[in-house]
Each structure stands twice: as structure tokens, then as C-alpha cells.
Amino acid sequence: MMLRQTAALFVDAYRELNSRKLFWITLVLSGLVVASFAAVGIDKQGLTILWFRLDFIPLNSDILPPSLLYKTMFLNLGLGIWLTWIAAILALITTAGMIPDLIAGGSVEMMLSKPISRVRLFLTKYAAGLLFVTLQVGVFSVASFGVIGIRGGEWEPALLLAIPLVVAFFSFLFCVCVLLGLLTRSTIASLLLTLLFWFFIFLLNATDAALVQWRSMAEAQRDALVRQVAQAEDNTRQLLITERRSLGEELPEDYHATEEEIAGVNPFLKGLRDKRDSAEKTATQAAKWSGIIFAAKTVVPKTGETVALLERTLVSMAELDALMSGQDKPKRTTVNEQTAEVSVSEYDVSIRATEILRDRSVAWILGTSFAFEAVVLALSCFIFARRDF
After folding, report:
1. Whole-angstrom Cα distance, residue 162 to residue 306?
2. Taking the model in full, what pTM does it have?
3. Has residue 259 been placed in a domain?
4. Pairing of strands 47-49, 40-42
5. What is the mean pLDDT of residues 56-61?
6. How far apart are CA 272 and CA 268, in angstroms?
7. pLDDT > 50? residue 252
8. Cβ contacts of residue 287 below 8 Å, gap of 6+?
9. 342 falls within a domain
10. CA distance 299 to 292
11. Total structural domains in the chain?
12. For a designed S-S bond to 244, which of 104, 249, 286, 346 qualifies (C-beta 3.0 to 4.6 A apart)?
């Protein structure tokens, strides 16, 4: 009996969402996005869109394999722009009114007159909203899976992980939306406040990304200066030993020149050491501030990192290396010994930043995010169960 009642509530809630035009509009737009992926091609001559060849873009299948091209398009455009921005906003617009309409339209009295617990009613409505998103993401992901397999020549089942990850990403926002809808009883207010909360998370993620980039650059400069100082000291020692022995001075095999002797021979060492010490302080400070923001993000849902988990699965570090390394770009940060000027490699910084972000554990990303959702849902259930309507 309980399962039958829950199923009836679930079907009723889903039919309400399905009847809205935005459901079908989003579905059609998802099809158009997938079709745009399929229209792009790559071969040994270069890129194509339908029957047009893009000769002005210096890419071909030798530089960028077809499978990697389609996976990159799916991650950057399909996942990064469509699913987690445009489609997510459309889904929020569609589902934001579920709770306010229920408690403001008088239908809640009819629902509560039946032998159904308030918590079960609330959670059923919530699950129906997530099913709406699951169907949208599922259609898009399965279609993209087919495009990558047929056009890219690589069948990638891991791509279907986009379905649970995007639904989880949406649920972190949706739980806030239903709580705000319960408190304000207004669809517009709950939607706007949810978008404001999302914008706050976006700013936090942007700050985190900027600090990770700063930390990566500072550490690249520090490591380059450490290498250069060590190399300069070693070269100076060898030069000093060679000069003394050429003058007939007998030196033991285990002889080591003192720091004062080395500094006296190489006038550039002091500047290098000062720059190294300064870079070490900057790297320590950057790591400190990055750690503070990392700790602050622990208590909020990790929307960006949740979606980025798919990139970890689909694109290896080796493939990322192939994408980020350019033939005309140096891969290592270097130092001019005489001027102590550091030439920072963009590739070096990008690789370091990517490794820092990828080192963040799945348990931290999903565990703390689901904990946030559980707390919000528990608060929502408590309010819904105790409030008079």
C-alpha cells in the first residue's frame, strides 16, 4: 500500500513537470547541441563542419585524434556550458515552483488528507524533480556516447557517468531551491535566491582557481630558482677546483669549497639566492591562502569539482599533456643566471594547477557535498512536517 501511494505521488508529480513546455524545449535543444557535435569532423587534412573545410585552423587528426576531439567538445561545450549552465538554469526554472505551488495552491490540504506522511510527500516531490533532470541528461549523454563512438571511433562507456554526476550537481542546487521555496512560498524568490547562492559558489570556485594558479606559478618559479642555484653552485665548485688544481695546488678528493669561496668566484649567486628565498616565501604564502579557500569550500557543495570528475575519467594526464603542450612553448620554467629573471612556462603552470585540482579526493568532493544536501533536506523535511498549511 505504501509503495503504491508513493508511486502514485511520484507519477503525479512527474506528469506535472512533463506537461510544462520547458521539458520539451530543453529536450529539443539538447538534440541540437548533439547534432552540432556530429557536424564537426577531423582528418589528416584538418577540421571540417559538414562539407566545409576549416583550413584556417591548424589542427588535424595527427595532432588531435578524433576521439580526443569529441571528448573535449563534450566536456567543454556539452558538459561545461550546456548541461551545467544553460540546461541547469532551465531545469531550475521548471522545478522551482514544485513546492511553492504545492503549499500555496491549496493542493497540499488534499494531499495531507490522505494517509501519507508529510516527509514521504516532500521527498517524493523532490525525487520527481531529480527524475526530470535525469531524463534530460540521460538523453543527451546517450546521444553524445553514440556520436563519439561513430564519429570518433572510440566507444567510451565512462561518458555515461555524466548522468549521475550532473544529477548530483543539480541536486546540490535543487535542495537549496526547495528549502527556499518552502520558506518563501514564492517560485520567483526561491529561484532568484538559488541563483544567488549558485553565484556565490561560482565566485568561491573562481577564487579557488585563481589561488591555485597563483600557487602553481609561485611554486614553478621557486623550483626553477632552486634548480638554478644548485646548478650554479655546482658549476662554481667545479670551476674553483679546476682552477686551483691548474695552479698546482693539491686538493683532497673529498674537498668541498665553502659558501664564501663560491660566492667570491660567482658574483651572480647572491642575487639568485635572494630571489630563491623570496620565491620560497611567495610560494608558502600562496599555499596558505589556497588552503584557506580549500577549507572554506568544504562546507559548501562542490558543483564544479563534481562535474570535473568526469574529465578525470575520460581524459588522462597524458592526453591533457598532448592538449596543453605546444611545439613553440617551453615546457619548463627557466632562470637567467646573470639577471635572476624567471621565464615562466605556461605549460608548466597549467600542468601543476591541473595536478593540484586532480589530487582532491572523490570522498572530499562528493562526501562533503552530499552531507550538505542531507542537512538541507533534513531541515526542509522538519519544516514541512511541522508547519501548518
Report:
1. 10
2. 0.82
3. no
4. antiparallel
5. 74
6. 6
7. yes
8. 215, 219
9. no
10. 12
11. 1
12. 249
Based on its alpha-carbon atoms, the radius of gyration of the chain, rounded to whole angstroms, reads 29
Of the candidates 251, 19, 3, 289, which has an alpha carbon nearest to the alpha carbon of residue 124?
A: 3
How many Å apart are CA 58 and CA 280, to the nearest integer? Answer: 40
65: which DSSP letter? Answer: -
Four-residue CA torsion sign, 114, 116, 122, 128 = negative
Rounded to whole angstroms, how far apart are CA atoms 185 and 171? 20
**Residue 118 binned pLDDT confidence (cut-offs 50, 70, 90):** confident
Instruction: Tell me the three cell numbers of residue 7.
Output: 508511486
What is the three-class DSSP state of 115?
coil
Which among 20-24, 141-145, 146-150, 174-178 has the top mean pLDDT? 174-178
Please say if the pLDDT value at position 151 is more than 60.
yes
The terminus-to-terminus CA distance of the chain in angstroms comes to: 26
d(CA 231, CA 240): 14
- Residue 144 inside a domain? The answer is yes
Count of Cβ atoms closer than 10 Å to residue 77 Cβ = 14
Q: How many CA atoms within 13 Å lie on the side-chain side of 123?
A: 16
DSSP string, 305-343: HHHHHHHHHHS-HHHHHHHH--TTS-SS-EE-TTT--EE
pLDDT, mean of residues 125-132: 85
Domain encompassing residue 18: 2-182
Choice among 7-21, 146-160, 181-195, 220-234 with the minimum mean pLDDT: 7-21
In a domain, 323, yes or no: no
The CA distance from 342 to 140, in Å, is 46
